[in-house]
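Tutorial sheet, problem 5. The two components below are modelled jointly, 592 residues in total.
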Amino acid sequence: MSREARITLLVLVALVAGAAVAFGAPHVLSDYFVRIILLIALNAILVLALSLSNGFTGVFSLGHVGFIGAGAYISGILSIPVQQKMALLPHLPTFLHAFSLPFLPATLVAGLLTALLAVVVGYPLMRLSGYFVSVATMGFLIIVNVVLINASDFTRGARTFTGVPLETTLPWVTGWLAITVFVLARLVYSPFGRAMKAVRDDTIAASAVGIGVLRTRLIAFVIGAFFSGVGGSLYAHYLGSFSPNTFYFALTMSLITMLVLGGMGSLTGAVVGVICVSLLSEVLRSVERGFTIGDFAVPALFGASQIVLGFIFILVMIFRPKGIMGDRELTFGLTQRSATVNQTEERKR
Amino acid sequence: MATPSPVLLSVENLEVNFGAVRALKGISLDVHAGEVVALVGANGAGKSTTLRTISGLSRPRGGKIIFDGKPIGGIAPSRIVSLGIAQSPEGRRLFGGLTVADNLRLGACTRTDKEAVGRDSERMFMLFPILKQRLKQLAGTLSGGEQQQLALARALMAAPRLLLLDEPSLGVAPLLVRHIFSALAELKRQGMTMLLVEQNITLALDLADRAYVLRTGQVALSGRSAELRDSERVAQAYLGEAT
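Model answer (structure tokens):
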């Protein structure tokens, strides 16, 4: 089979399998497992969005959760039913009272407005490199949090924002995940993706060959923000009610852990990281409630799962600092990368 | 050269500051089309700074840089590459996490003529055969000499009209230095215009038609390579006032 034919086949198989899981799982599995699959798919969107700047372009952003929060609130405000909006958010500008958008348009608008926000934020910040851009984007996250708490006409302030219709189902999330993977794979493995990695490896060399460093970083940042906003909207319609602190340091840490654990230069690595961390924390959470083996009862140790996760993170950083996948992709034999590395090693011998 | 070819690059009274340090104190030089010009001088004389300012990586504080009749001082490095100046930077600065093939493709990233890019990569494999064998290897895993060849090839992939070379012999084994300089001589025969910065003055003067000797941010003397080779004043410029 030719390479193209194999790629097409692989994509088809993946799509059919994804659709089967999305539509079949709720009939076969219990609600608990459906919820885990849904959260894995949702977090995969968020971590993939993060990987674009943090992994592929070398701009280690700590502010993407700000975009997720913005997307969640924008989409929430747009899609609360009209009567409820009067009751919950009485001080909204009247034009926002007048209508309520269905799930899909609300999600798209949330993504686009978030991307616009990223243009404004990114234009000054993408000039920075290394630690500086991390600290500056963290500043952006803090600003978003403070704005969400204080713009109480729009967000109910520190009180719970509620009334968002619960419309995020497994097919929606897997659909958006498929779009995210498709767009990012096309982008990362294109000439533009090569420019992103060049900027990551050496900004001076990148300028010397004629790449616009600021432009490249900004595009990666904005596209990542779009999918963060979309993910935020999905999150909002999954939770139904949330507060500004839902989208703050705890979520930032968890997404970054997943990304770093999976491997920063790999799309499949991002997904592998999400799956590992999600499954592990589910297992650990059930263990920490306490259990009995035979006559021996293990008491509940609340918080133990966080400690174990932190410990595993440290171990991975020591023994596999580039994450589980590093910059390799899991493509079922389609990549030539590992093969050639072996070849050159043989030649050296 | 019997008839003087037109001036391709002319630098007039170039000044560059790094903070309070005056790195270049008014350097003037010109490079004619088809010519190889060397900048030589001791560490800190301002050779690399001159190249970096021409390629747009450093901003000039004063003076003019004129390439092919157009002033290019202080414009973005990516535009300068499009205008036809490519640099092989000091210390090679490859994209270590990417393959040799990707590094070459990135060298041509400002070009849109796909077929010509393909022809040029074939030319690179003629000039540097080792790169063809290493195509899918990560650039960071190459030896110093191979990396230098890749850095040269990457710069050439931009199809420049002027090639800026910053220390092509740095960190390269002596045998490979000879190989690299014979490749540069081949490029010169093909008519490539080059501005070369090189610590190894013998190598530099053997390749170049003319040279400028820099000392503490100024041109100390200049002339045809053959004349400078035997000049006592070159040694003087290198060693300071001592001799």
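Marking note: Residues 1-84+160-175+187-243 of chain B form a domain with the Rossmann fold fold (CATH 3.40.50.300). Full credit if you identified this.
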